[in-house]
Amino acid sequence: MSAKTGTGKYEKLLERCKSLAAIPTAVAHPCEDSALAGAVEAAQAGLIEPILVGPAARIEEAARAAHIDLGKLEIVDTQHSSESAKKAVELVKEGRAEVLMKGSLHSDELLSAIVSRDGGLRTGRRISHVFVMDVPTYHKVLVITDAAINIAPTLEDKVDICQNAIDLVTSLRQNESEKPKLAILAAVEIVTSKMPATIDAAALCKMADRGQIKGAILDGPLAFDNAISKQAAETKGIKSAVAGDPDILLAPDLEAGNILAKQLTFLANADSAGLVLGAKVPVILTSRADSVRSRIASCAVAALVAHARRSGL
What we know:
There is one protein chain. By secondary structure, this protein is an alpha/beta fold. It has a domain at 123-278: Isopropylmalate Dehydrogenase. Helices cover 41% and strands 18% of the residues. The chain has eleven helices and eleven strands. It has helices spanning 9-17, 33-44, 56-65, 81-93, 107-115, 155-172, 196-209, 224-228, 230-235, 254-267, 292-310; strands at residues 23-28, 48-54, 74-77, 99-102, 128-134, 142-145, 181-185, 217-222, 248-250, 271-277, 283-284. The protein has an eleven-stranded mixed β-sheet with strand order 3-2-1-4-11-10-5-6-9-7-8, sandwiched between helices. Helix 7 (196-209) links the parallel strand 7 and strand 8. The longest helix is centred in the C-terminal third of the chain and has 19 residues, at 292-310. The two termini are 34 Å apart.
């Protein structure tokens, strides 16, 4: 991305990680230079202790070709990508790793191993994805969900998507008494049966009132301008504790969330860290297009979540 990216928000996360121990992390199938470099760079930054899971010869060849020093990193040899995904999940179940990291295999392969009913990492929650974004034009880290996994989430799915994101933001906070603010996005701020997303938004807010969603202040439906701009909300007569200051934006569906996140990345020079939540451990989901800064930030967020889990938060 452009050299203009970054406003110091990710650096604050990295600063917090300096006093924390590196987290053992199973890296599934890091057989390309970008995937391998991400894990090695995060290890050098003291964020993770990578266990490289994949065909040893291919990993070593990729490291040589990219001039990456693997040092004494452990390699767990496998035959192919699906075996790498399964073995990486096994390392978590054995207690040897507290975080999963996607290498150069397809996301679906890793997610299939995670949600497997036989040997996966399911919990009672639905799995969802978050983009943790550093947007130069916004005053704090912004979480967008779900833009990668749940295509057309139901109301019940959105409850878990919200709770996953709320728990994430809570684990990243230093002030535990300050509740995250979650804006539920739609095209308009009124509730109408013609737009199902607005009905879901109203229901989610009432569910939060009744304790079905915990630990955050919710408001919606809110159009994007009303969610991000206090002035825009006031102009429309919206009285909201969330407008102008959300920590989390809940998209109505995957397409809207994906477009929003990528628009911020490519038009607003935002950086984005990617994480999958709702499994027994956080899952770092990076792509080959991610910058070094984004890969490191993804590892930092996962490390902070893992430490919060150790502390029982």
